[in-house]
Write a structure and sequence with these properties.
Strand 12 and strand 13 form a beta hairpin. The chain is α/β, with parallel strands linked by helices and 334 residues long. It has 14 helices and 13 strands.
Length: 334
């Protein structure tokens, strides 16, 4: 491969890869070239094991530009590693990790100035040893798998992306845009990245600390009783929702209810309810002009101080700061 004087971005292709993981980052870099002019000298190459068309998980076929051996002969500015999952009969997903692909990721990473994984691509970086001793994120649905299979990696399923030196990991799936914008900001500054975000009709360029966590997206319980309790909690967040209340609703003892939450959801009733209340508060802060006192009442916190303390624990910022950054603009503000 001929040397490229600008910023060469190589996106790894393989059978079953998630389509948006592949197409999202190039769109960001393309817009960066338009918004940044000569300074944004990005060139994106799609590389695969061969020049044969690659069929993505969405069924869309993509043609590679070069093969892995061809790309491995030159210097790479940014190596982007997307991912792929397989689902079982119960719709549980696992990241796919192919040993041959991992080998090429190692080779290409050695040629790259920086490496970034998109969504479950973090599993490939981890298998290649690129995340050992580092903090990393991935899509929430495979975070446990990443931690169990890679004990040397400090897995944090909350942020939408994490930077550890020259290694970046991103959550999924649309968070590939946030990660790519962060890479552009690192190269060209925040102003160019914000202009690209506006072209993408993204309300904000979200910072890495923005959480991908959402209570309704948590893994479903295997028992109808807990599922009924989850729905009961979501419908009655403004009520006290004590352990005794939930136990009475489920027709079990307080102690048995606590055991059910621990075994089925991996948490306590109190922690689950607080998470659900914070999630509702986040939605209200983003989409309404309600006062903090009103939000505290609607979400069952009772007082503003209680809301603020819970928000700090779960989101690592204050409700007011969160609203300033993530509030959706009213029609007259657009």
């Amino acid at each position: 491969m001929a040397e490229y004087a600008g910023r060469l971005v190589v996106v790894v292709l393989f059978e079953g890869v998630d389509l948006l993981d592949v197409t999202g980052p190039p769109e960001v870099f393309s817009l960066a070239r338009r918004e940044g002019g000569d300074a944004a000298d990005y060139r994106v190459i799609l590389a695969s094991a061969s020049m044969a068309p690659v069929t993505t998980a969405a069924g869309v076929r993509i043609l590679p530009d070069l093969t892995f051996p061809q790309v491995a002969t030159g210097a790479i500015d940014t190596l982007i590693v997307p991912g792929s999952v397989e689902a079982d009969g119960d719709r549980r997903v696992r990241a796919v990790v192919d040993s041959g692909l991992v080998g090429w990721v190692k080779v290409l990473a050695d040629r790259a100035h920086r490496v970034a994984s998109v969504c479950v691509g973090a599993h490939l970086l981890a298998a290649a040893g690129l995340l050992d001793g580092k903090r990393a994120t991935t899509h929430w649905s495979t975070a446990r798998q990443l931690a169990e299979e890679n004990p040397a990696v400090e897995v944090d399923a909350d942020p939408i992306f994490i930077r550890e030196g020259d290694v970046w990991t991103g959550a999924g799936i649309s968070a590939c845009l946030d990660l790519s914008l962060a890479l552009v900001a690192d190269d060209l500054g925040e102003e160019i990245a914000l202009r690209v975000a506006r072209q993408l009709v993204m309300y904000v360029k979200r910072p890495s600390g923005q959480s991908q966590f959402s209570v309704p997206l948590e893994q479903l319980s295997s028992t109808r009783r807990i599922e009924d309790l989850r729905h009961h909690v979501m419908r009655h967040l403004d009520a006290p929702l004590t352990v005794a209340d939930l136990a009475a609703h489920a027709h079990v003892s307080d102690r048995h209810l606590t055991r059910l939450f621990k075994s089925e959801l991996g948490t306590t009733p109190h922690a689950y309810i607080e998470s659900a209340r914070v999630e509702k508060a986040r939605r209200l802060l983003e989409s309404s002009d309600a006062t903090l006192a009103g939000i505290a009442s609607a979400c069952g916190f009772g007082t503003t101080d209680t809301l603020v303390r819970a928000f700090r624990r779960r989101v690592h910022t204050t409700p007011s700061a969160y609203r300033r950054r993530f509030r959706m603009p009213r029609p007259q503000e657009r």
